[in-house]
Amino acid sequence: MPFGTQVYLLCKPGSEEYFERETLCNLVKKFGGLLSVPLQFLEGESTELLNPEPAPWNRTYRSKAQERKTFLDFGKKLFETSFFDAIPLTSDIGKVQGIAFVLPYSPSLAQKNIHRIYLKNMLLSESAASLLPDWAFFVKCVVNSDELRPTASREDFYEDQSLEKARETLGQCLRDYLIALSEDEPERLRHLINLHHLSMKALAVQDSDFFRLIIDFLPFETTFGRMTLKEFREKNPVIRYVSSHDQYRQISGVAAAQGEAIINGGYVYDSELLERFSELYPVEQVDAAGFAQTFEDITLEERDSVFDFLQVADQVLRPFQCVTDIKKFLPIEMPMLYHLSQEGDFLRSVEHSKEIANKMWSDILNNLSDSYSKEINAYLFFNLRNPLIQKLVKLKDVQLIGRAVQMLYIQALLMGHHPLHVKELSLLTGGLSDLIEGCINNQIRENQ
Q: For the chain, which domains are there?
């Protein structure tokens, strides 16, 4: 079409609204507002310039701060959202320029993010999904390309080698942004990850490229506070973690007191991420039983002095498939450490279900539990550094020792957030009754 050609549009009946001044101006701004040639609306003797400014990425700025503010203002006006940040995008392949706006909320991974794309500064689509890598779920983009090919329906860019290479380049822009944040604005990066951490972890489990990009920046709960995996690795040659909250609660206090750094892998996706990281760095899964192997052994003389105590303890806890041992560990305030194997945890769940199930389900659960080994699957480690345990091992009253061990066992279960079964609730009730009765009898004797 030669330069200067005039095009006349004829209004059909029923389409009058599209020829109203406000509607017409809005449509021109929407589809051609980024064109470099001036678009003027003439009405009588008045003239209105509909695209007074070039696209934000084609302007000159005094500083990065001014550029960022202009980008964010543009995004807020376009999408009616106050974004967390704005990232310049550029790719020589396809001659792509634009802005990636970091979402201020965590989107659903099930819903693919859509972007606003322009071809030679004319709006092509407001719902394009192919321009960025799948892992870039936390941004919404506005981009223009001068060379990428549109699909026949003009709803997106055509999937070819140029688009693939442009996608890789734009993905690298986002990687560079995250790396720059980690070096220059670590607090801002923490804020960003706090906004999107669950979605980032979910995607890192599935996507190898995103996993390598983000894993060092993800935060984990440890026995020395919350820290990123990079911070943890800088202080520890081996990553040690427990796979459940209950296990972590049991050993976190002991580990911290002994200077052992342990990660809580009980949060959703954390264990999977750490297992995957074992391909790149030494990673070790631990539990209370394995951790107890690091405790200080008691001497032969001490072993002889506690022999009778352990005999009684094993006897009273045998009905609960639990054996006992005695070690020395910190903190001194902790009298014991309880460990339940995965099989034991499952069997406890079955037993708890049997107690509340009807006869039919109870029979099914019986058959299920019978298929598992009835061997010992729980361990209770007493701490000989603890003053209470030191007094208990010196007692000669077998009945009193047995009752005290039962109460420590119940306390360990409660500390580990294990539901109490009927037999254990009976122990707790009986122990409390004995305690109250003992206090009453002592008071009576003092008053006589």
A: 16-49 (no CATH), 64-189 (3.30.230.80), 219-286 (3.40.50.11260), 300-341+377-447 (1.20.120.790)
